[in-house]
From TrEMBL:
UniProt-listed SUPFAM superfamilies: Ribbon-helix-helix
Organism name: Saccharothrix australiensis
Composition skew (Basic and acidic residues), residue ranges: 62-71
Residue ranges of the region described as Disordered: 45-79
Record-given protein name: Arc-like DNA binding dprotein
Amino acid sequence: MAERKSVLLRLDPAVHDALTRWANDELRSTNAQIEFILRRALAEAGRLPSGASAPPRRGRPRKDARPRDAPTDEPPDPG
């Protein structure tokens, strides 16, 4: 993965608090939420570079992320 850039960002405290609450609601850090919003805005404007790396995947995979045909530990349904 390419080295990440650091940026100093000055925000109105009320804006920062709103971003932090939004990030918490979506289980992200404030920094990750800002990057998510910026990437979405760039994509919507058609300005997201094609060479931009995907955002890092963090945390555990969702339980419903298992493919439907993947084997399970459950016994087969007798009916």
